[in-house]
Amino acid sequence: MVLKVFFPSCCSTAESGILIGRWISEQNSAVVLAVIHFPFIPVQVKQYLSEVQQVTKVSISVLGSWNNSKQEKEESLGEFLEDLGTIFSHEPWIQISKEGASKFWSCSTLQKHSNNPKEEEIILVYYDQRKVMLSHLHPPLDTAASTAHRADNASELSAVFDTVARSKVLFMTDRYDDGPIKLTHWQSDGVEASIIVELMKQASVPACMLLTFLLSLISGVCRSRVLKFWPLSFLWSKLSTCEQLRHRLQHLQVISSNKKAQNQTQLMRKANIFVSLLIDVALGMLLMSWLYRKNRIGHLADTLIPVADHVAEELQDLLQWLMGAPAGLKMNRALDQVLGRFFLYHIHLWISYIHLMSPFIEMILWYVGLSACLGLTVALCILSDIIALLTFHIYCFYVYGARLYCLKIYGLSSLWRLFRGKKWNVLRQRVDSCSYDLDQLFIGTLLFTILLFLLPTTALYYLVFTLLRLLVVIVQGLIHLLVDLIDSLPLYSIILRLCRSYRLAAGVKFRVLEQQDGKPLRLLMEINPLSYGSVVHTYRLPTYSCYPKDSWTSLCKKLFLGELIYPWKHKGEKQD
């Protein structure tokens, strides 16, 4: 049977005393937490351990004795430490002794109450107590064949990590305290603290109360009945800026909540949201300072109208090309002229609308630029909405062409079933056999011929405007991908992984320090940090958008049948 003793490296220079920690009988291992020095009174030690056990809910007891022969030269000290086992009565009683300047330690166990004491092989594992206490051990993410073995090792390690983490109260006593018990642990030279952190904690309470009050007012206004009427509710559901503001409002409510985080995951989520908001607002302020410097807003407004006119002229040239003989194709002259003039009239209306709004564009951009102080994501969402408004005529062209093309495709498919003596059963959602008379077949043949010869003209217009629409969709999709990246990226976890990698532990590795016959095997336990991919996968924040679930096959089918496509699909939103 192998006995594993986890010994804190900070106690290797401690004076002689007794070892306190937790005995894990299921794993036959002992986790040493601290060393109590001489002199002490056993009754006071037992009372102190019972108080700590009530607070930490960890079964802490006296595990054995620690003898630093470099500090103590008395010959009777070893016998005295061995006799302490009868007072504290722990089975087995662990005796660890440091042999002067030698690099080898002796470690043995005593089992006074056992009839058949067995010699156990002892492995002495050193660990960094501070890193183990501050780290959070993550379970393995893979599901390989060795999952059960990995789970057993993870449970053994988690017991060690959990024991050290829950014994935080034990480490709040340093050598400057006037208590009757003197301990050696990672904070025995002084409790780690920061004046700046303490001041921020004190200032965060009134700040959170004020922020909670303001957020409750904003939430009350957003839930008012005035905003639930049709025009405003439609805008709130379609504009990505409103969705982003609602998403950030939820983040602020999570941060300002007085409810304490129940576990490490909730704490990391709050920290990631706070850092994400902070960096988002900082980037927005930088963008706003760049926009208002050197009158860039005015230059942008002066450039916007000529760009819109140029786009309109290119669309007019494209329509004139389609109304002729595009690529040498023979089109239906009458339908071609009707569709071309219809779309040209829409472009004329769009140009008139742009020139009517031209005196107010600079003022609108000036106020829109101020929204960057709410964050870079809000500015990007406003940019996406502006692109949607400026390309509204392209969207109208695409919808007209798609509906007309879809009507002809479904008409041709229905008439094709008529030729085969079939029809679509609406109630049972299937194709059934059907008998048609001569008049029905004659009219069906005429309609099928008309739709078939008009289809190339409609398909060409649909193809051109679908490509233009896909270009706008790609631009808006890239903007939304950037917004989702800023919203969902766990920046705090990534920074923590970069600066203090031991805080996010994926496991441990053991390095052999010394090995000699007759001496315990000494290992050094080092923390393996999580990979950056695992950090992003574990702590990724949820976003208000979700990617379209359509595959490439489904998307191509929609394009072929003339069904409408959208750049983004929000949760709970139904696509047409």
From TrEMBL:
The signal peptide annotation in the UniProt record is none
- Any one of the GO BP annotations: GPI anchor biosynthetic process
Top-rank taxon of the source lineage equals Eukaryota
Q: Which UniProt keywords apply?
A: Membrane, Transferase, Transmembrane, Transmembrane helix
Which stretches are transmembrane? 203-222, 273-292, 338-357, 364-391, 397-419, 440-464, 470-495
| Molecular-function GO terms, alphabetical | transferase activity
Question: Sorted alphabetically, which InterPro entries does this protein's record hold?
Answer: PigQ/GPI1
* Any Gene Ontology CC annotation: membrane
PANTHER family membership: PHOSPHATIDYLINOSITOL N-ACETYLGLUCOSAMINYLTRANSFERASE SUBUNIT Q, PHOSPHATIDYLINOSITOL N-ACETYLGLUCOSAMINYLTRANSFERASE SUBUNIT Q-RELATED
- Tell me the protein's name: PIGQ acetylglucosaminyltransferase
Encoded by which gene? Answer: Pigq
